[in-house]
Design a protein that fits this description.
9 helices, globular, about 150 residues, mainly alpha
Amino acid sequence: MSQSDTTELFHLFSKVRTEKEMEQYLAQHTVTTSIRDYFNDYIASHSVTTAEIARRCSGLISKSYVYDLLNGQKEQPSRDIILILCLAAHMNRKEMRRTLELFQLRDLYVKDSRDIIIATAINLENFDIDAINDKLAAHGLEILNGKKA
């Protein structure tokens, strides 16, 4: 698959009119990355260990659950759990967006106060989950928690 930005792909996709064209588009422009492969690639390219990510979860997610998530063994974690995991892995916005997408969860939304606080922390490379939770609480918003559903 060639690397194309979303705008270019949208333009190409808008020209799909037949089943054959759809099949060609699928073959050329889609990627099916497993959660496990994605995290293995991320960990390898960012000099971070699974143990570090688990430790940075501030006790909000159990170590065994973190390992299960990173190995692709948990299919429907809550959005907060994935946000915590992404923060613990020090992911930027693009990486976090991709991770949420892999878990079929919605991206951070710029009209949602809670999401704005989380996104701003990421933009500032402030991955301290406790500090983010303090900021959320100060604004009367629900803090990030490790509840599974």
